[in-house]
Specification:
By secondary structure, the chain is an all-alpha fold. It has one domain. It is 78% helix and 0% strand. The protein contains 7 helices and no strands. Helix 3 packs parallel to helix 6 and helix 3 packs antiparallel against helix 7. The protein starts with 5 loop residues before the first helix and ends with a helix.
Length: 251
């Protein structure tokens, strides 16, 4: 039985700092479409659910915490949680970047869009991909893997270990390179399609300079981009969610 005292409250708050820092940046949980109060209550609920699992370890590791040490622990826990959430966010930022590029390759870059996940608008082509990827996090139960990774982080990064900036930069660098490589693999069909179709219409423009080939070719480029999307969207979303799940499993 755990007695509720000032030390217990401090340890619970330390758990909240790591979980709240992660959910503040983790895709799906940190969406601007989710009210701030809902995100706060969700972080509190997850903290209360996980506290019984990690509280005994924290009580043994931190028997007596003086005020200066408590401040250091709070900052360190927030940075650790933010690091985990930021790495997850990098996967979606890379996907969004390449989705916007693919929209330009397929002829949809000039279409106006509405902000859905972020405050800035993006082409509907890109919004379709990013929103679907966000929904897949919950459909494939990857949100439970996020909670598992948070629990496992107490073994890899104990609360008594201060946050190492060098370690954080190394993790971010590795995650960023892997995320953009994955996004490049996903958008490769659109890159190849753009090169082929623009090369073909470029030759046609040279052969018939008196015809405005650009305006004639635009509907065909857009239709071809839809066909490429139709035949590849299921596969590249599967590749993306598999890569995201692989990172969570190793986190």
């Amino acid at each position: 039985m755990t007695f509720l005292n000032s030390e217990t409250v401090l340890l619970v708050f330390l758990v909240f700092c790591r979980i709240g820092g992660c959910l503040m940046l983790m895709p799906g949980f940190s969406s601007t479409r989710v009210p701030v109060q809902v995100r706060l209550f969700l972080a509190v609920a997850i903290t209360l659910a996980m506290t019984p699992l990690v509280l005994p370890k924290l009580q043994l590791a931190l028997p007596n915490v003086y005020p200066e040490r408590a401040l250091q622990l709070i900052v360190s826990e927030m940075l650790i949680g933010s690091l985990l959430g930021l790495i997850g966010r990098l996967f979606f930022l890379s996907l969004q970047f390449m989705a916007v590029a693919a929209a330009s390759f397929a002829g949809y870059g000039n279409l106006p869009g509405t902000p859905i996940e972020d405050t800035e608008p993006s082409p509907p082509f890109a919004s379709l991909i990013t929103v679907t990827a966000t929904v897949l996090i919950f459909l494939t139960d990857q949100h439970w893997e996020v909670f598992r990774a948070l629990l496992a982080s107490y073994n890899a990064l104990p609360v008594t270990t201060a946050f190492a900036a060098r370690f954080g930069v190394d993790q971010l660098t590795d995650a960023l390179s892997g995320a953009f490589l994955l996004a490049l693999q996903i958008s490769a069909p659109f890159v190849v399609y753009s090169l082929i179709v623009n090369f073909m219409f470029g030759i046609a423009n040279k052969l018939t300079p008196q015809i405005a080939v650009y305006f004639i070719s635009l509907p065909f480029v857009v239709a071809g981009g839809l066909f490429v999307l139709y035949f590849t969207i299921s596969e590249f979303l599967r590749l993306f969610i598999t890569g995201f799940a692989t990172w969570l499993a190793g986190a």
